[in-house]
TrEMBL record:
Source organism (scientific name): Mizuhopecten yessoensis
Broad class of where this protein is predominantly found: membrane
Protein name listed in UniProt: Neuronal acetylcholine receptor subunit alpha-6
Keyword annotations of the record: Membrane, Receptor, Signal, Transmembrane, Transmembrane helix
Listed SUPFAM superfamilies: Neurotransmitter-gated ion-channel transmembrane pore, Nicotinic receptor ligand binding domain-like
GO cellular component: membrane
Length: 427
């Protein structure tokens, strides 16, 4: 029994000594790295060259984009890397330790700030974050947060618009010849891991670019986020109802004038379109730059069409209830004849009814002693048929006016809808 226990205790003792040795090596390495380390002095052996800082952005999710307030809220993680020659060691001489974590407040780090933060300048420093230090002097600083930035929306093609918002980062206290961002190509697209979807927007692309702003003498790193709006909600709840209301509005000219409901019907639909304009104005920024949304022009055009329909309805009722003894002007007579031709010969139908109502006459022919049926000649028919002005009444003028309004407003609505769709499809 003792023969078995002694080797076991010996192995446990060796493991304990090895663990303690590695722990002491890690502690010694940590202390040696920070010994005589000055965190207020930037790294670099030759100060004629700037300290290059490489940044990557990992998109996590889009919280909300408020176009009215020009406020974009997103979640993301910045991975910032640079070299510090003062933090190098030999891993073989230090227990094969290739990297270690050091609290960020103990090391030099670039003073990066978001210049276009919505609530003022926002620094990337966040409590409780450590910096990963590798044996070759490479440092990696990973920090994430919810970033609220200012983004001016261009709603010209609302609701099929695309927006490009940028997170503009600068080195707050350093000149470009001291600290600068590593050059990032404009077409470089970073991978989006763990990205959460948004019900109103879709993130199409994320790129990063670097520029030097001579006005503030610093390098600007821009994270450009391209957003595409999901238009289904607006189409179903605003555009289609307005189109259907305008089509229904045409049926005001089909209602009988005796019903007395034409004016009320027109006013109700006019107010409905005005309500949709109010709903849309609450969801768009109150700005005329760079351009008002095309949908606003579309709703305004439909509102004007509804107003014209109401005015034409009033004139149609005025024609219908005109006193019969009042003479019809010549231009209205000409208008009625034109409408008869346009409306597939409605005048000819009336005349045909009068012609067929004339019965043939029977005359006796003495020479033959037979009776034959002879129809009247054309001149005789012309004497019997009334002149066009004899059957033209104010009620017929009103009916022709209603037919004209149906054709006119149907064409007008189709044209305005086609122009609106063509405008949006160009986006």
């Amino acid at each position: 029994m003792m023969d078995i226990c002694i080797p076991t205790l010996f192995v446990m003792l060796l493991s304990t000594l090895a663990t303690g040795n590695n722990t002491s090596v890690g502690t010694q390495l940590y202390r040696s790295l920070l010994l005589n380390y000055e965190k207020n002095v930037r790294p670099g052996l030759d100060y004629s060259y700037p300290t290059m800082v490489k940044c990557q952005f990992k998109f996590v999710g889009l919280n909300r984009f408020q176009e009215i307030d020009s406020k974009l809220s997103i979640q993301g993680v910045f991975i910032i890397e640079w070299f510090d020659e003062r933090l190098m060691w030999d891993p073989y001489a230090n227990g094969n330790i290739s990297s270690t974590l050091v609290p960020q407040e103990l090391l030099w780090k670039p003073d990066i700030a978001i210049a276009n933060a919505y609530f003022g300048v926002q620094f990337l420093i966040k409590d409780g974050v450590s910096i990963r230090v590798k044996y070759n002097g490479a440092l990696m600083w990973v920090t994430g947060d919810t970033f609220v930035i200012y983004c001016d929306a261009d709603v010209t093609y609302y609701p099929v618009d695309s927006q490009t918002c940028s997170i503009n980062m600068i080195t707050w206290n350093s000149y470009p010849f001291e600290v600068t961002f590593d050059k990032v190509g404009a077409d470089t697209t970073f991978e989006r891991n763990f990205s959460a979807g948004n019900p109103s927007w879709d993130v199409k692309d994320i790129t990063m670019t670097t520029t030097i702003n001579p006005g503030i003498a610093t390098t600007v790193l821009s994270v450009n986020i391209k957003l595409k709006r999901l238009p289904e909600y607006i189409v179903v709840n605003i555009i289609l109802p307005v189109c259907f209301l305008c089509i229904i509005n045409i049926f005001v000219f089909v209602l009988p004038a005796e019903s007395g409901e034409r004016i009320g019907f027109s006013i109700t639909l006019l107010l409905s379109v005005a309500v949709f304009m109010t709903i849309l104005s609450d969801s768009l920024p109150q700005s005329s730059r760079p351009q008002i949304a095309t949908l606003c022009y579309f709703l305004f055009s439909q509102l004007m069409v509804s107003i014209l329909m109401m005015i034409f309805t009033i004139y149609g009722l005025r024609f219908y209830w005109m006193m019969p003894d009042k003479s019809i002007p010549v231009y209205l007579k000409l208008f009625s004849r034109i409408m008869d031709r346009v409306c597939l010969g409605s005048q000819c139908c009336k005349l045909s009814k009068q012609v067929t109502s004339i019965k043939p006459t029977t005359e006796h022919i003495p020479d033959s002693g037979k009776q034959e049926s002879n129809f009247r000649t054309v001149p005789e028919l012309e004497e019997i048929l009334p002149e066009p002005d004899e059957y033209l009444t104010w009620q017929k003028i009103a009916n022709d006016f209603d037919n004209f309004c149906i054709i006119f407003f149907m064409t007008l609505i189709v044209v305005t809808n086609a122009v609106f769709c063509e405008r949006l499809s160009s986006q």
